[in-house]
């Protein structure tokens, strides 16, 4: 599965799943825009992947910054083949602990950010002969869990966003899908699972619930994104691909 001459923009591209996807895309022949708030980390990855990657500092919840990011992409590459909507704000709180500000922050990044990126990417994606949008959902957009109400709700919304947008963009030949990971060992995951002070124990309990008996790795998700972005998936749109070790099959 190759991605020669593809141009991809990856939000949340400076760490975790986004970083793994950026590296895999470049390895397979693509040029990549790494979009993230973490400029130090983003610049480091840019230098490691040069000349096939460029970094753009962006807050995806700010329309003026998103619009500027896509203008830069057009000036740099002229076209966009793949938008990987991946930036996310994670929050682990119950209903009674979640403030209105917490709720708004999650929805602003995880839903409004995806909307803004799709909206401003569209003119460039229309220029591509194989335009695709991939959105990062989650197993938690399918099943519930405690202490993650706002996050889970946003991820369920992302799955519906991808389905609805797929229908809107089908006349332009642009495919839209979601990839839905389970627990994946990213820096954000490690931070969240370390809150109790027993990271190994928390992971062991989680792994026990997965039929494949391991956590996901960022590269696992990156490979699924590469597939959905490629011509191998040219007749796939409006779906969500579970990359969850079999968890939701139970």
TrEMBL record:
<dbReference type="GO" id="GO:0016491">
    <property type="term" value="F:oxidoreductase activity"/>
</dbReference>
<dbReference type="GO" id="GO:0008206">
    <property type="term" value="P:bile acid metabolic process"/>
</dbReference>
<protein>
    <submittedName>
        <fullName>SDR family oxidoreductase</fullName>
    </submittedName>
</protein>
<keyword id="KW-0560">Oxidoreductase</keyword>
<dbReference type="InterPro" id="IPR020904">
    <property type="entry name" value="Sc_DH/Rdtase_CS"/>
</dbReference>
<comment type="similarity">
    <text>Belongs to the short-chain dehydrogenases/reductases (SDR) family.</text>
</comment>
<dbReference type="InterPro" id="IPR036291">
    <property type="entry name" value="NAD(P)-bd_dom_sf"/>
</dbReference>
<dbReference type="InterPro" id="IPR002347">
    <property type="entry name" value="SDR_fam"/>
</dbReference>
<dbReference type="Pfam" id="PF13561">
    <property type="entry name" value="adh_short_C2"/>
</dbReference>
